Target: 6-phosphofructokinase
Amino acid sequence: MFRFGLLTSGGDCQALNATMRGIAKTIYRNSKDKVEAYGFEDGYQGLIYGRYRKMEWGDFSGLLTLGGTILGTSRTPFKLLDTPEADGVEKVPAMVKTYRKLKLDCLFVLGGNGSTKTANRLREEGLNVIALPKTIDNDTWGTDMTFGFASAVDIATRCIDELHTTANSHRRVFVVEIMGHKVGWIPLYAGIAGGADVILIPEIPYDMDNVIDTIRRRDEAGGRFSIVVVAEGAISKEEAAMKKKEYKKKVAARVQPSVAYDIAEEISKRIDHEIRVAVPGHTQRGGEPSAQDRIFATQCGVEAARGALAGEFGYMIAQRDGKMARVPLEQVAGKLKYVDPNGELVQEAKLLGISFGDE
Ligand code: F6P
Model:
């Protein structure tokens, strides 16, 4: 008998179901032994409280195009892993118990950075774990790509595209807030794909003077509008120099709390222009996966299943230099993958005339 468990953890994305389909189909098709599959509900919570459902081959049909997660998800912060649940349940021992009770041969964890850290902890407890790199943010260290990212970029790009016509009609500046609290991969990619004039990301603190200059130059050259893409975590040079506590207080005090409104207000004080804000928000995580995501999710699923059937555990599936790869969990845990301000894409965007507000 080959018994495996699946859970989806952290913020959802479009390609979770497609990935689980890839894992399950490959296992059912290639296992020499009979297969038993268990799906844990709502992320690690299902593993902690033994909330699972036995799944069959047919449960994994029709999932390639289905967004969200059929298992549900939740956030179980790594820093609270050793703090008991409100009802006193100790998380890690409870998870190990459920795994052992079901006699699992492998647990597949589809999650982002925090979830991968927890997966590594479970590995240290002796469980056979394989992690798969989920997140629209693309900020997982050790892999060139995460599933969810390509779909989110497509949605964010479409949003920016659609703002062009109305911005042009009304001679407006649009400030578009794109997801990414700590890293700016989606704003960077969608900003370039959507023809943004300014892209502000957490990795490159901006100076408002430079943003205003860019808008002014466009106006002087006869442009009717400007599109300013801001990451959720866009930060000014001034804010970057603040004490962490002071900056956190400032963020907490924001209306919404949205950086886009702050930036729009700041722009409106300094330039005579009609300004509007657009926040696509969680639409960036919703709906069906893009074609690129479906392919990558499938590859991740197949590779994870292949490893499990070979009895190899303790790593995260990754893509490195265009090839599928494995990265030991202890190497990935706790590291974020940031946009390199001196990297090729940022430099090319600058040559094209996109401002990052830093110069
Ligand atoms: O982790 C992905 C992400 O979508 C971030 O880009 C975003 O800031 C955050 O999750 C929002 O998460 P939620 O509203 O689900 O807590």
